[in-house]
Amino acid sequence: PPTMDGLTFEDISVVAVKSVGHISGPVGSPIKNLALRNITVAKAGVRWASCRNVDKASLVIENVSPPIECK
User: Fold this and answer.
1) Cα 33–chain centre separation
2) Contact by Cβ (8 Å): 53, 24
3) β pairing state of 22-24 and 50-52
4) Which tens digits make up the pLDDT trace of 24-57?
5) Whole-model pTM?
């Protein structure tokens, strides 16, 4: 399966959006070394839609609003 490794989303500011977004790794190959830092959505219609199939041992979440929970 395809792999995703070493993705960083950092210093992102959004004024308004209906849905913050989805983060999902390929089936059978979780995203490794995903970093989410300093991300702010001022007006989000709803929270993060989903975050799944992510390697929690290498996941970094710092200063993200609204909060995100990866499964």
Assistant:
1) 11
2) yes
3) parallel
4) 998 899 999 999 999 988 877 767 778 899 999 9
5) 0.86
